[in-house]
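Contributing new records

If you add data, match the layout below exactly. Sequence lines come first and carry their own label; structure lines follow with theirs. Keep one chain per record. Anything else will be rejected by the validation script.
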Amino acid sequence: VQLQESGPGLVKPSQTLSLTCTVSGGAITTNYYHWSWIRQPPGKGLEWIGHITFSGVTYYSPSLKSRTTISRDNAKNTVTLVMNSLKPEDTGVYYCNGRGYWGQGTQVTVSS
């Protein structure tokens, strides 16, 4: 299984971020697996953002829930993260994770 994150590297404050995780080698609807978005701010540890289950149910970090949406496209085998009202503290490396595998991560910088 391989995961590949993609999206803009630079976003302005208050704008919306959209990242896509393209999964190959296994269907995202495979029973009992879930697909997570995780980020790591510079100099800090990993932070779980949320995940979507094999059946399409979503769970979010309480601190990010109000401005985060995770969805999936079964036909394209992709999982998307949308985060609104971005702030400079949202800067970091964003990872997709599932079935024990990690993407390489994508750098997101929130700056004007």
